[in-house]
Amino acid sequence: MSKLTRWSPFALLALIPVLLLAAPLLSSPPKPAPAQEGGYVGMDQCAACHEETVTAFKETLHGKKGFEMRSNNACETCHGPGKAHVDAGGGKGSMKNPAKLPKPEQSAMCLTCHDRGNKSLWDGSTHDTRGLACQSCHSVHSPQGSKAQLKTATESELCFSCHKQKQSQFYRASHHPVREGKMECSSCHNPHGTANPKLIDTADVNEKCYECHAEKRGPVLFEHVPVREDCMNCHDPHGTNKLRMLKAKEPYLCQRCHGDTRHPGSLYDQADLNAASNRLLLRSCTNCHQQVHGSNHPSGNFFIR
Prior knowledge:
The protein is built from 13 helices and no strands. The chain is elongated, with a radius of gyration of 35 Å. 29% of the residues lie in helices and 0% in strands. Among the domains are: 40-96, no CATH class; 120-210, no CATH class. It has helices spanning 9-27, 43-47, 51-58, 76-79, 83-87, 103-111, 118-122, 126-129, 155-160, 164-169, 205-210, 225-229, 270-274.
């Protein structure tokens, strides 16, 4: 006996109203999705006229699916709702152009999404107060760099477009390997801002230097005061024509502080000439004071060992 024959006639009669109500739902086609609220039309509508721009945008970080967690409005996230623009058949002026906004408004637009620590750093930072915006370095639609949507192929190329003097220093004989591609400007600086001078992204210059030059880090038994204060007392990190990026040649560098010592001070004194100055013999301070960064030797108070 089938399951249907087990039902009483009264039970089958009770099912008739339910079947009549469900019949329209089963036979009618699905209703179209409601239109987007707020005047938004979606990326597909933008692509109808701006196909090349939208196609390129989909290949960038902003166009990747992961960014939909922030906003599903795609192009209209930055350019504003596009319904009025579409209804008017296109035309300039009906959409927001971020490139034509004042610099503070450009950055504020980016910081609505990129707000994880960046806003507090950027507001009042060196680059902010110099009239730059996020779009001064980054390109949303046509980035040239392989990361961070930079406007240039490399980070150093972008930085050197403004910092010409630093670029020339990196072409000197002794320099950090930035132009060789082994380091970048952001290896030491945070371009979005820091609480420290020169946009250094550590508490002080020495802490940044010790990240690579850990062998120079203390504590040591005998400290060399200028080393403890700032590595840049003696070195220029962007490059010099002296060995080890020193700011001046030895012994002239040392004698900027040690001007009154038992060693000859001036090459032009007659007594100095008669005594065969150590400068005339082409000697330097570090020939003897080799542990100039500090010494742990019990007899290292003069940094000789």
